[in-house]
Design a protein that fits this description.
6 helices, 5-stranded parallel β-sheet, Rossmann fold, alpha/beta, YtoQ family protein
Length: 149
Amino acid sequence: MPLNVYLSGEIHTDWREQIIDGAQGLDVTFNSPVTDHAASDDCGVAILGAEPDKFWHDRKGAMVNAIRTRKGIEDADVVVVRFGEKYKQWNAAFDAGFAAALGKSLIILQQPDHDHALKEVDAAALAVTRSPDQVVEILRYVLTGKLPG
């Protein structure tokens, strides 16, 4: 049974690469948003034209990015959402809510410091993990029925 996994959330660390590398040999396809921060921020104005007001600049980018994000989440069997330490990822919380509303299997990846702030998001998830390795072990178990070790 192949899995299509969408990796959403913070873009400032290599957590996606850790999961992809750890899942080598498993029947998994990974998708994600554009993780080049500048490209993600500026895609709307680069394609649709400049905006002097930052609100409209950001809105154009968000709308263009939403095409990719919606497609990725809708097509996913599993959605992994990472909440990083440094920045508030409001978009990640939105992605988690969208995935939950679609009935997707949701895995949250966060540090314990965020437990209280993300309690509602965590309650919608089927697993809350602390490391990319735990995400990989869940995927391995789902695909093979084998426990770590």
